[in-house]
């Protein structure tokens, strides 16, 4: 099981590939490889870094996103925090680059980029941002660097002119072997000999954007669980971006919802300038007490068709809210603070005055969780904790399952106001990672946050760890949850045996011609068939154990959804 140690001090990175105007910016490595941060791997803006030098190998594996480019026209950093306080930090900065086929670092500890065959790509003033939050810095070359593919050697030198009080912090990645060398000094004499480093910054490389027609559906903003006792309607939004090098007009965006609220819609964006993003809102759907919706947002074919569509799911239920889907099969990833302490939050709003009564959490399957404490925390819009649940001990039977043991003194929540619901983990001599994660290709930004146990603010967690099993439970009457009845459809449908035996079950009570679709809890269709028989067999023997939805659509386009458990 992969274990992810959370940091409560900073965001772990920005998007691995973004478009700004007519220039494409790609991060090396991508966010999924980031595992820390440092104030010593880049110019930090303090007097301790009056002069600073570094040289690193960027392997070809980190450059695949731009392997087809013929030039690089900018260089930069992703910072988890700038150099805040005092005078804004500035200094003279020089960047050297060289193409390489090397798979291991060979430049040693002597700083001599020109003598090592590197080409000066940039020289100018580096103004370190004076902010305490995550930010980026890019320096545009006066002449493009000829990139031939493969890896890169990067060397840079900084000499401070003005200085800040607090050090800038750089997003970094750990390497198994030496991947560079670095050194800094409080004097004005640059270090000639550097120290080997297995820990280096995340770099940003800019390449000219060749596409004149590239529209991207970056992500959909649904909610994975929608509680009917709180939400009467549910809307879907999608982030659409112009990734081309020219302004585009009259961009059609198509929306399809398949499930208990099937619908379609098209929205036309009047115009988007290069690099501009906009949020498109689609018509709201009435929330029903049980069932699954699968949402697809797409744009027409263009020069890059791999980014033209995004899909998400939402499960309608009685009283639970979550940012991610209610999956039962988690990724082989466990998230936590190891031996440290902290809180991981998800942000949410409610549409009406609502009472929060508890939280539900997916416990990872790691045996180190057993015997350790967790509790739920509710924080206000500023990130200040306003309520704690009871504390309970994780038992062996809870591993790999959802538990609803977090109970609050009822908390009244105001409508359309940000709240944070989180799971707290105290420090412990033996490390543990209690939160289970489900894999997701694109995680919308600002989904999860971290904070110290006593913090009065939160920090955005931008590393994609997948959807985490954190759910809010609201007070309110709940009707029967299970089968979604549709007036006018046969009400004598049954699926048996349930749970399925050896992955096999049967639907009985069909009349006429019917389409039978089986969905997993990610909203993916795992089997589909059309039949005019009264009974139809379902075979899930090659599917993972968990809950599935069987959706039957008759010749009158009426539907009925039944729940099937595959053990």
List the defining traits of the structure above:
Immunoglobulin-like, 4 domains, 8-stranded antiparallel sheet, 53% strand, Jelly Rolls, globular, mainly beta
CATH class of the largest domain: Mainly Beta
Number of domains: 4
Average predicted confidence as pLDDT: 87
State the shape. globular
Q: Rounded to an integer, what's the Rg over CA atoms? A: 26 Å
- List segments where confidence is low: pLDDT < 50 over at least 5 consecutive residues: 9-21, 480-488
Q: Work out the strand percent.
A: over 45%
Helix proportion: under 10%
Q: Which class do the helix and strand fractions yield?
A: mainly beta
Number of strands: 44
Largest sheet report = 8 strands, antiparallel
- What fold name stands as the CATH topology of the largest domain? Jelly Rolls
- In the CATH classification, which architecture of the largest domain applies? Sandwich
Query: How many angstroms does the end-to-end distance come to?
Result: 22 Å
**Count of helical stretches:** 0
């Amino acid at each position: 099981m992969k274990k992810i140690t959370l940091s409560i001090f900073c965001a772990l990175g920005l998007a691995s590939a973004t478009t700004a105007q007519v220039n494409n910016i790609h991060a090396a490595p991508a966010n999924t490889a980031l595992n820390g941060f440092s104030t010593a791997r880049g110019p930090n803006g303090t007097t301790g870094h009056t002069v600073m030098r570094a040289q690193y190998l960027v392997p070809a594996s980190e450059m695949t996103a731009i392997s087809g480019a013929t030039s690089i026209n900018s260089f930069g950093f992703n910072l988890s925090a700038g150099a805040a306080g005092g005078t804004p930090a500035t200094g003279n900065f020089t960047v050297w680059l060289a193409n390489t086929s090397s798979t291991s670092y060979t430049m040693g500890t002597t700083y001599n980029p020109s003598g090592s065959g590197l080409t000066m790509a940039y020289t100018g003033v580096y103004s370190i941002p004076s902010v305490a939050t995550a930010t980026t810095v890019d320096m545009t070359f006066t002449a493009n660097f000829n990139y031939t593919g493969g890896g890169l050697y990067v060397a840079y030198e900084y000499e401070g002119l003005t200085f800040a009080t607090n050090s800038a912090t750089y997003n970094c990645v750990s390497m198994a072997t030496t991947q560079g060398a670095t050194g800094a000094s409080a004097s004005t004499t640059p270090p000639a000999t550097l120290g080997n480093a297995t820990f280096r910054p995340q770099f940003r490389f800019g390449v000219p954007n060749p596409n004149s027609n590239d529209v991207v559906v970056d992500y959909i903003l649904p909610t994975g669980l929608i509680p009917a006792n709180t939400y009467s309607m549910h809307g879907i939004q999608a982030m659409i971006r112009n990734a081309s090098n020219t302004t585009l007009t009259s961009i059609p965006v198509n929306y399809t919802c398949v499930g208990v609220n099937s619908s379609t819609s098209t929205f036309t964006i009047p115009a988007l300038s290069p690099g501009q993003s906009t949020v498109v809102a689609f018509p709201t759907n009435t929330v029903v007490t049980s069932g699954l919706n699968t949402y697809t947002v797409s744009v027409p074919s263009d020069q890059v068709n791999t980014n033209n569509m995004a899909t998400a799911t939402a499960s309608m239920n009685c009283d639970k809210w979550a940012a991610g889907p209610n999956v039962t099969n988690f990724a082989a990833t466990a998230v936590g603070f190891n031996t440290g302490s902290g809180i991981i939050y998800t942000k949410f709003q409610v549409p009406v005055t609502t009472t929060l009564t508890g939280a539900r959490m997916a416990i990872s399957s790691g045996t180190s969780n057993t015997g350790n404490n967790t509790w739920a925390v509710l924080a206000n819009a500023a990130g200040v904790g306003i309520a704690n649940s009871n504390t309970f001990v994780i038992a062996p039977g809870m591993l790999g399952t959802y538990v609803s043991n977090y109970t609050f003194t009822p908390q009244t929540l105001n409508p359309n106001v940000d709240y944070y619901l989180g799971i707290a983990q105290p420090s412990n001599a033996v490390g543990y990672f209690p939160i289970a994660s489900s894999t997701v290709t694109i995680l919308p930004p600002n989904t999860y946050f971290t904070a110290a146990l006593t913090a009065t603010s939160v920090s955005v967690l931008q590393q994609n760890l997948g959807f985490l099993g954190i759910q809010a439970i609201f007070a309110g009457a709940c009707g029967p949850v299970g089968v979604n009845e549709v007036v006018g459809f046969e009400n004598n449908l049954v699926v048996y045996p349930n749970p399925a035996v050896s992955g096999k079950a049967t639907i009985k009570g069909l009349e006429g011609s019917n389409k039978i679709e089986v969905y997993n809890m990610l909203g993916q269709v795992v089997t589909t068939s059309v039949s005019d028989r009264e009974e139809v067999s379902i075979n899930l023997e090659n599917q993972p154990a968990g809950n599935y939805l069987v959706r039957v659509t008759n010749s009158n386009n009426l539907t009925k959804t039944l729940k099937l458990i595959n053990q």
